[in-house]
Amino acid sequence: TIQRTRKQVDGSPNNPNSLQELVIPEKYTKTRKGDDFLFFDSGPGPERIIIFATNKAIDLLSGSDHWYADGTFKTSPLIFGQIYTIHGIKNHEVIPAVYGLLPNQLESTYDNLFAALKAKAPSLNTSNIMTDFELGARNAFRSFFPNSIVRGCFFHFCQAIYRKIKSCNEILE
Known about the structure:
The chain is of the alpha/beta class. It has a single domain, classed as 2-Layer Sandwich (Nucleotidyltransferase, domain 5). The chain is 34% helix and 24% strand. Strands 1-2-5-4-3-6-7 form a seven-stranded mixed beta sheet. A hairpin with an 8-residue loop joins strand 1 (38-41) and strand 2 (50-52). It is globular. The N and C termini lie far apart (47 Å). InterPro entries: MULE_transposase_dom. This is MULE transposase domain-containing protein. Residues 67-159 form the MULE transposase domain. Pfam families: MULE.
Protein backbone atom coordinates (compact mmCIF):
# COMPACT_ATOMS: atom_id res chain seq x y z
CA THR A 1 0.00 0.00 0.00
CA ILE A 2 1.00 3.65 -0.27
CA GLN A 3 1.24 3.96 3.50
CA ARG A 4 3.56 0.94 3.80
CA THR A 5 5.81 2.26 1.01
CA ARG A 6 5.94 5.74 2.54
CA LYS A 7 6.84 4.25 5.91
CA GLN A 8 9.71 2.29 4.33
CA VAL A 9 11.02 5.36 2.47
CA ASP A 10 10.84 8.05 5.15
CA GLY A 11 10.42 6.09 8.38
CA SER A 12 6.94 7.49 9.09
CA PRO A 13 5.60 6.40 12.49
CA ASN A 14 2.71 3.96 12.80
CA ASN A 15 -0.76 5.43 13.00
CA PRO A 16 -1.86 5.54 16.65
CA ASN A 17 -5.14 3.96 17.73
CA SER A 18 -6.03 6.70 20.23
CA LEU A 19 -5.24 10.29 21.13
CA GLN A 20 -3.34 8.99 24.16
CA GLU A 21 -1.02 6.91 21.94
CA LEU A 22 -0.18 9.79 19.61
CA VAL A 23 3.44 10.89 19.88
CA ILE A 24 4.61 13.58 17.47
CA PRO A 25 8.26 13.06 16.48
CA GLU A 26 10.40 16.21 16.56
CA LYS A 27 10.85 16.25 12.78
CA TYR A 28 7.08 16.73 12.35
CA THR A 29 6.98 19.78 14.62
CA LYS A 30 8.89 22.02 12.21
CA THR A 31 8.49 23.19 8.63
CA ARG A 32 11.00 22.24 5.94
CA LYS A 33 12.64 25.62 6.53
CA GLY A 34 13.07 24.76 10.21
CA ASP A 35 10.38 27.09 11.56
CA ASP A 36 8.27 25.87 14.48
CA PHE A 37 5.01 24.42 13.17
CA LEU A 38 3.56 22.66 16.22
CA PHE A 39 1.91 25.66 17.84
CA PHE A 40 0.08 23.89 20.68
CA ASP A 41 -0.54 20.38 21.99
CA SER A 42 -2.88 19.98 24.96
CA GLY A 43 -1.29 16.61 25.73
CA PRO A 44 -2.60 13.05 25.83
CA GLY A 45 -6.24 12.61 26.69
CA PRO A 46 -9.63 12.08 25.06
CA GLU A 47 -10.13 15.84 24.49
CA ARG A 48 -6.67 16.39 22.98
CA ILE A 49 -6.24 19.39 20.71
CA ILE A 50 -3.24 19.92 18.45
CA ILE A 51 -2.68 23.20 16.62
CA PHE A 52 -0.26 23.63 13.75
CA ALA A 53 0.73 27.15 12.71
CA THR A 54 3.91 29.10 12.17
CA ASN A 55 4.58 32.47 13.77
CA LYS A 56 4.48 33.90 10.25
CA ALA A 57 0.97 32.46 9.79
CA ILE A 58 -0.16 33.98 13.10
CA ASP A 59 1.24 37.32 11.91
CA LEU A 60 -0.75 36.90 8.68
CA LEU A 61 -3.94 36.39 10.71
CA SER A 62 -3.11 39.37 12.91
CA GLY A 63 -2.82 41.56 9.83
CA SER A 64 -5.94 40.23 8.13
CA ASP A 65 -9.28 42.04 8.49
CA HIS A 66 -11.15 38.93 7.35
CA TRP A 67 -10.84 35.35 8.58
CA TYR A 68 -12.50 32.32 7.06
CA ALA A 69 -12.91 29.20 9.21
CA ASP A 70 -14.32 25.75 8.59
CA GLY A 71 -13.97 22.16 9.68
CA THR A 72 -13.47 19.16 7.46
CA PHE A 73 -14.21 15.63 8.50
CA LYS A 74 -13.43 13.28 5.61
CA THR A 75 -9.70 14.08 5.59
CA SER A 76 -9.30 14.13 9.36
CA PRO A 77 -7.05 11.49 10.94
CA LEU A 78 -9.26 8.71 12.35
CA ILE A 79 -8.43 9.48 15.98
CA PHE A 80 -9.61 13.08 15.60
CA GLY A 81 -13.12 14.31 14.87
CA GLN A 82 -12.13 17.06 12.45
CA ILE A 83 -9.47 19.32 11.02
CA TYR A 84 -10.45 22.93 11.69
CA THR A 85 -8.71 25.57 9.60
CA ILE A 86 -8.59 29.33 9.91
CA HIS A 87 -7.59 31.32 6.84
CA GLY A 88 -6.51 34.92 6.44
CA ILE A 89 -6.01 37.21 3.47
CA LYS A 90 -2.71 38.37 2.05
CA ASN A 91 -2.38 40.22 -1.26
CA HIS A 92 -6.03 39.45 -2.10
CA GLU A 93 -5.46 35.70 -1.64
CA VAL A 94 -7.04 33.50 1.02
CA ILE A 95 -4.25 31.59 2.77
CA PRO A 96 -4.64 28.83 5.38
CA ALA A 97 -2.89 29.86 8.59
CA VAL A 98 -4.05 27.61 11.45
CA TYR A 99 -4.77 23.89 11.37
CA GLY A 100 -6.48 22.51 14.44
CA LEU A 101 -6.90 18.79 15.01
CA LEU A 102 -10.00 18.61 17.19
CA PRO A 103 -11.68 15.63 18.88
CA ASN A 104 -15.26 16.87 18.35
CA GLN A 105 -17.51 19.84 17.57
CA LEU A 106 -18.36 20.89 21.11
CA GLU A 107 -18.34 24.57 21.99
CA SER A 108 -15.90 23.82 24.81
CA THR A 109 -13.47 22.36 22.26
CA TYR A 110 -13.59 25.54 20.19
CA ASP A 111 -13.16 27.52 23.42
CA ASN A 112 -9.99 25.51 24.12
CA LEU A 113 -8.74 26.05 20.56
CA PHE A 114 -9.19 29.82 20.71
CA ALA A 115 -7.88 30.03 24.29
CA ALA A 116 -4.67 28.31 23.16
CA LEU A 117 -4.32 30.69 20.21
CA LYS A 118 -4.91 33.75 22.38
CA ALA A 119 -2.54 32.48 25.11
CA LYS A 120 0.36 32.37 22.67
CA ALA A 121 -0.76 35.35 20.57
CA PRO A 122 -2.69 37.70 22.94
CA SER A 123 -3.08 40.49 20.38
CA LEU A 124 -4.58 38.14 17.79
CA ASN A 125 -7.77 39.74 16.48
CA THR A 126 -9.72 40.57 13.33
CA SER A 127 -12.72 42.61 12.21
CA ASN A 128 -14.70 39.94 10.37
CA ILE A 129 -15.01 36.18 10.69
CA MET A 130 -16.88 34.04 8.18
CA THR A 131 -17.71 30.49 9.17
CA ASP A 132 -20.40 27.88 8.72
CA PHE A 133 -23.50 27.86 10.90
CA GLU A 134 -22.15 25.50 13.54
CA LEU A 135 -23.34 27.07 16.77
CA GLY A 136 -20.41 25.92 18.94
CA ALA A 137 -17.80 27.51 16.68
CA ARG A 138 -19.81 30.70 16.23
CA ASN A 139 -20.34 31.12 19.99
CA ALA A 140 -16.66 30.50 20.71
CA PHE A 141 -15.60 33.04 18.07
CA ARG A 142 -17.97 35.60 19.61
CA SER A 143 -16.61 34.89 23.07
CA PHE A 144 -12.91 35.11 22.24
CA PHE A 145 -13.14 37.79 19.56
CA PRO A 146 -15.98 40.00 20.88
CA ASN A 147 -15.13 42.97 18.65
CA SER A 148 -15.34 40.87 15.48
CA ILE A 149 -18.42 40.49 13.32
CA VAL A 150 -19.17 36.77 12.88
CA ARG A 151 -21.00 36.01 9.64
CA GLY A 152 -22.33 32.81 8.13
CA CYS A 153 -21.03 31.55 4.81
CA PHE A 154 -23.51 31.69 1.92
CA PHE A 155 -22.33 28.30 0.59
CA HIS A 156 -23.06 26.63 3.93
CA PHE A 157 -26.39 28.47 4.13
CA CYS A 158 -27.39 27.06 0.73
CA GLN A 159 -26.28 23.58 1.81
CA ALA A 160 -28.46 23.81 4.92
CA ILE A 161 -31.48 24.90 2.88
CA TYR A 162 -30.93 22.09 0.38
CA ARG A 163 -30.67 19.49 3.18
CA LYS A 164 -33.87 20.83 4.74
CA ILE A 165 -35.72 20.67 1.43
CA LYS A 166 -34.54 17.08 0.91
CA SER A 167 -35.73 16.15 4.40
CA CYS A 168 -39.15 17.64 3.62
CA ASN A 169 -39.38 15.85 0.27
CA GLU A 170 -42.27 13.68 1.47
CA ILE A 171 -44.26 16.80 2.30
CA LEU A 172 -43.52 18.33 -1.10
CA GLU A 173 -44.68 15.28 -3.07
